[in-house]
Amino acid sequence: MPGWKYAFSLSREAVKAATPPGTVRLIEPITAVVIPEGGVTTTDRFSKYPLPTPDPADPLNWAPWRKLACISTVSLYAFVSNFISACIAPALPVWNLEFPEDQRKIEELMQFVAYNILLLGFGNVFLVPVANIFGRRAIVLISALILFISTAVGATTSNFVGILVVRCFQGFGSSASETVVPAVVGEMYFVHERGRWMAFYTAALASGSVVGGISGGYIAVRLGWFQVFWVSAVLAGITFLCSVLFVPETIYERGAHCLPIQRNLPRPSRYWPRTPAPYLSLVTLPSMRMTLPSRFRYTGELDPTYTWYQPSSSGDLSSSTAMTPTRLSKQVRSSRATGPGNFSYHPYTFSDSLKFGMYRGRIKYQFMKPWYTLRLPATWIAMLQYGGLVGAVAVISTIGPQLLILPPYDWGADTGLLFIGALIGIVFGAITTVLLADRRLKAFAKKQDHGYAEPETRLPIMLPALALGTGGLLVFGFCAQYPGEYQWIGLQVAYGMVAFALTQVPSLWFSYLIDAYNQLASDCFAMICILRGMVPFIWLLFVIQWIERDGYLVPFGGFTVIMGVFSLLIVPILWAGKRMRIATARYVVGNQ
């Protein structure tokens, strides 16, 4: 099987011509068109990947209003989840006023935030495999229901331990918003559309924390501690009802539209002579979701030692179980077909959209699959960068309001206004991602001889965001260390810089993982969210003591160094991301 040695022994021409999982033909060959005035003009045509089936129930075929309703609802779920997680941070000082008989230090009260974030990450170890077994719709509904019930219980709980337990359940109910939801978005849209819609989702995800931070303090001070939970419960209830009505099942069994897999790969030595690269070096894999035309198959010399799977006894590739595409179950065939033995489908109605997905089994395998994604380098890099940014936002959103209560600021109930800077950063982050992500992908594909679109094409867009996010931590630490009448402006700008990065970086990484690893994307998200929960949890546990001992500049300087190291990890992906996908392709294909 091809591995790291094979991938890095290929010439640049061979890598350019290779089509490992994630590389798709986005631009069709140029078509000649005769114009009336005489002469010939040429046009490019974008291909749709994955290839949609004839079935109206295929999420790729849904009407635009249905897609918009679905993505709006799951984005609302992401917004409310982060609103509930963040709104309690500026309300923490109210605890000792509301419950004078149960006085707590700020370090203890910060556990309400820390354990919520921890469960938000670790809950996906359970929820993602269950979503792969029973479907996305079931998990989104169950998670939204848990979020609603736990929040309503919190509105009637008045002891520290009880609130802490409620916060843990809120975190668990919010887990699917950062793993299952981006998978839903990826399953509804084509490759050339995912960038802007993923930006829409991540903007909602990030703005939930900001709006919660702005409003949480006001609600707690002016209406009381319990009203924070009642307002959150109303939002969670609305989210659950909308999810019941507007979030259909998005896992779709494509049957014969799954692509056969080419076993044999060209010998690395085939490319060392400086001769033109073959049309395809690795024949396109299942992530393209189309039937492979014979003219696209590599017909040169093959080496049986370099294969995706063990050799088959038959020369017919389709005879192997590894080559057999997923087939529609008899239940699905009978429910969707209008006649026996054909694939003529009836319209996809609203009542059809309320049905749950079918049981897929393989429980042990599904629970192990997320851990297999740790063999993919991109999972680690996305995990560290996203975890670092979430940790930065968690620390700033918790420390910032406590800082602005003190002189020379004395903002009182207005401490939530610190989040205005973050809101501006989120807006700019979302706009730039929407404008650049898909446009860059299409422009790159047009320049390529074969019209290929590569997942790495979008990643350079995040370089300024990573620099801003890292620098924002240092700016915040400096302004916090040296308070002054106008230093709050620096705090706002710093928070906006970090929020800009938090909006753009995960959006591009989520799109990359869906494009590169397809059905493994949600499993990658599960691993990413584990560290996304651990990093802020650890930082929040010791940051108060560190600040009390060394001030603000030293801790935030340390966070800056850590985030800077995480940011530099993008360089190997930009330099050799496609080689890495070639090296790890057997893991992706073997677990599709």
Please, could you describe this protein's structure?
The protein has 592 residues and is mostly helical. The two termini are 17 Å apart. It has helices at 4-9, 12-17, 64-86, 95-98, 106-109, 111-122, 124-134, 136-154, 160-174, 180-188, 194-223, 225-246, 330-336, 350-353, 363-372, 377-405, 419-447, 462-481, 487-517, 521-550, 553-568, 570-583, 585-590; strands at 24-25, 31-34, 40-43, 264-266, 302-307, 452-453. The strands form 3 sheets. Strands 1-6 form a two-stranded antiparallel sheet. The protein is built from 23 helices and 6 strands. 60% of the residues lie in helices and 4% in strands. The longest helix is centred in the C-terminal third of the chain and has 31 residues, at 487-517. The chain crosses the membrane at residues 68-92, 112-131, 138-166, 198-221, 227-247, 372-396, 416-438, 459-483, 489-512, 524-547, 553-576. Residues 70-592 form the Major facilitator superfamily (MFS) profile domain. It is a multi-pass membrane protein. This is Major facilitator superfamily (MFS) profile domain-containing protein. InterPro entries: MFS, MFS_dom, MFS_trans_sf.
List the main descriptive attributes of the protein structure presented here:
single chain, 592 residues, mainly alpha, two-stranded antiparallel sheet, 6 strands, 60% helix, 4% strand
